[in-house]
Amino acid sequence: MNAWKYTDATETSVIRQKEDGTFESCSVEAIAEWIEAGGVPLPADEPDFEPLKVAELAKFRRDREAMLNRIAGIAVFSDDAAVAILKTFRTGLLDLPAHATVAAATDLVALKKAMKARYDALLVPLPLNLKQDFARVDA
Fold first, then answer.
1. Secondary structure of residue 16 in the 3-state scheme
2. CA 6 to CA 86: how far, in whole Å?
3. Which end of the chain is more exposed for a tag (fewer CB within 10 A), N or C?
4. How many helices (DSSP H) and strands (DSSP E) are in the chain?
5. What integer pLDDT is reported at residue 75 of this predicted model?
6. Gap between the Cα atoms of 19 and 6, Å rounded
7. H or E segment at 46?
8. Is 11 left (phi over 0), alpha (psi -120 to 50) or beta?
9. Overall average pLDDT of the 62-69 stretch
């Protein structure tokens, strides 16, 4: 029989392949005696990052669509200077998924951190009144 292996990062359940090729799984509590005797389950396989990245970027794109609508609504009632700033912000949001730091991410934590850092950087040039207008739309 193969060794026990955690099923995921929560480390609450384990699985192993039996000699006949079938699998058995159970909670970690069910193998407590084996663990107390020195048994150590193998770590869970790392999830494939690509599907996680695709899902995270799809979520961002859905959220971004709402943000772009907000920007358009604010721009209608803004002066030319504010519209120029909003256009730059809009372009940054459109380009965010392709930004070098986002594209270079190799795991979900790094991807979320890169996306947040890039979004925060896009907010910096916005004057306080535009940030407040942007925030008020959700209220």
1. strand
2. 48
3. C
4. 6, 3
5. 94
6. 19
7. none
8. left
9. 94
C-beta separation of 114 from 47 below 8 A: no
Q: Which two tokens stand for residue 36?
A: 């107390």
pLDDT in tens, 105-130: 999 999 999 999 999 999 999 999 99
Residues 13-32 pLDDT 10s: 999 999 998 999 999 999 99
Greatest Cα pair distance, the chain, in angstroms, is 74
Q: Which helix (H) or strand (E) holds 76?
A: helix 49-76
- Of 4, 19, 138, 16, the C-alpha closest to 67 is 138
Query: What are the φ/ψ torsions at residue 78 (nearest 5 degrees)?
Result: -110, 160
List the Cα angle 120/125/128 in 5-degree steps.
Answer: 95
Using the predicted structure, report yes or no on whether residue 8 has a pLDDT greater than 90. no
Q: What pLDDT does 138 receive?
A: 57
Report residue 28 as tokens: 């970690």
Q: Is the pTM of this model over 0.85?
A: no
